[in-house]
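Incident review: delayed structure delivery

Summary: a single-chain prediction request sat in the queue longer than the usual turnaround. Root cause was a stuck worker, restarted by the on-call engineer. No data loss occurred. The affected request and its eventual output are reproduced below so the record is complete for anyone auditing the incident later.

Affected input:
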Amino acid sequence: MVHRTRVALGIVVFGSASVMAQTPDFAEGNAHQWGTFASDGASRSVVNSTERVKVGSSSILFTTASGFDTGVSYPANANLNLDASGYNTLLFWEYPENTTPIGWQGHQPVVVIRTGVGSASPGTIRLTPTTQQTPNRAWKLFKVPLAGGEGWVRETIGTPNLSDVDQVQIHHDTWDAGFRIWFDGVRFVSLDPNGLPPAGPPPPEGVDPDRIEPRVLLYISNPVMTNYQGRRMNEVYGWGDPIGLTNQVISDFEASSHGRVRFRVVDVIDDTEFPYLESGFRYTPASFDAAWRSGNLQPGTFDYVRFGVENGLGARVDSGEIDEVWVYSFPGAGMWESAMAGRGAYWINGGAYPAAGGERAFVIMGWNFERGVGEAIHSWGHRAESMMVRCYGEWRRDRGNTWSRFALIDRDAPGLGGVGNVHFPVNGASDYDYANPRFVLSNADAWLNYPDLDDRTRSINWREWSPDGSDPHRRYLNWWYFHMPHMPGRAPDYLLANWWRYLCDPDQFKSSGCSLFLTIGIPEVSLTSPAEGSLVSGVVRVTASAEVDGALGRVDLYVDGAYYASDTMSPYVFEWDTARFVGERELVVKAYELQNGTETVSSAVRVRVRCPGDFNDDGFIDFFDLDAFLECFEGGACPEGRSADFNGDGFVDFFDADAYLSAFDAGC
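Output delivered after worker restart:
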């Protein structure tokens, strides 16, 4: 529940400038009014469902055995008789489950609106997306413009009249056969494409609302070389220190992103063994040494699925413990420069491995400690290119979209160059041409003020990023990142003006895409643990759930009305140290959307924080507490929720007794 007046996510939120009018939800407890169809006559059904719900208290679940054109219609008897002339959008949620090997066939979903059924002038409007948009195993909110455009092609038959809508059909098609889809929140709305959600309050002191802080698992694959007196591989061959390289990568990104990205390594796994390839091959120290010295490394790809499963990456990402994985390994480990794992994973200049993760999509970087920092941020750059192409739909050799304009080089459009791409600086003549002395016109300076972009140019060459001529590869890439859009809010092209959010938060945008066109922008947020009335102590894990039709920036935790901490990525997790919060306390979480800083506040949760010395929880510190601790310590009964392991180190010993006596003496 939230304090702001609203209905469920994606539908009218009072005060939103985006939503001007709406019809009732056509998918609320009324499956008997819906029809189904399949061009091949395959079996299908539609029922009410509470298993997956986005709006109200129920959805409708469509199940089909068809492998051809199939779908649902509302109402089944085509007698809606709705005047939809005052609306500009059909809005609905979908959660598909398609287990066929290939998935959807063609561009899905297709919407058909039938008007004037049974009249002298019936008509049909058919709206088809220009790309495949139906997700799999994820909710997606569709906003279909009734006039077409914005990625939808409008075709008509007869004389359609939106003042007399009688039926809405939603069509899908799959390779092979059989799937099911939950539909919810089906309704006509009128949306203002230029509207913004309500402005939110200023952030707490010291909080950058556009910063993102991904939690990183650093996995070092640096085998022990038993054939070289047990030394580590990087020492044997004189290669780099993976910890030192990682620290430099983090520093480079924080500087070149204008502080918008602050990677935090929260765990390091130092693996002394050789990893497996998908073929099952695994080097030994001797076989690797022979292969390296002969130049005949084993072909093949790193076994991402085995790696993900053996290290429990899916569970760790889904719990919020980590957000991405950086692997520092050796040449010949068979890794992509970057790959994506988890549900909804997609190509990012490297393979997609859903089975290597869980519900959340996350990136696995594959770096090589034989190389330097420049090569590491180079690999990250190809990830960035792939993600921005996915956001904008294409990469052109002109100024056809914002990404293409940013990456444009003089060789492709003389005099119109932007900043360049990972392989080609704006003045580059070939791949990796980072030290080209040729001067060209570039509008790179203008990108520092994006989205206030203009066409002014200046003549530059490689000395722009490497004035002293040193390390032109690394310094070019940092210059390239430094010019990447990093400003608050929404840009005129309806994407965020801060591209770093897209590059570091792939799970948020894996189904909805990057465009904020016609988004509502009002978050939903709730505090999911601890529960109301809980008795807590020590460091307490506080979790929150938040989502938005738009772009979610962060969730803040407040204790007794005072700001405590922020989390910038889902799932939202806080470690609350209760040491100075003894007694009754009130917890609230607040979620913030990035277009206009729109805020939603959760309902409060009240908890009682234990006093460490009050071992029997009677509200006093006295010798009854000392007696209770000693009985517990000696193996007798312990008060509910208490343990003789007072210091939490996993052992019961005299260190616990010392810790309790200190707490007893300190009072509350």
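Verification: Residues 524-609 form a domain with the Immunoglobulin-like fold (CATH 2.60.40.10).
Action items: add queue-age alerting; document worker restart procedure.
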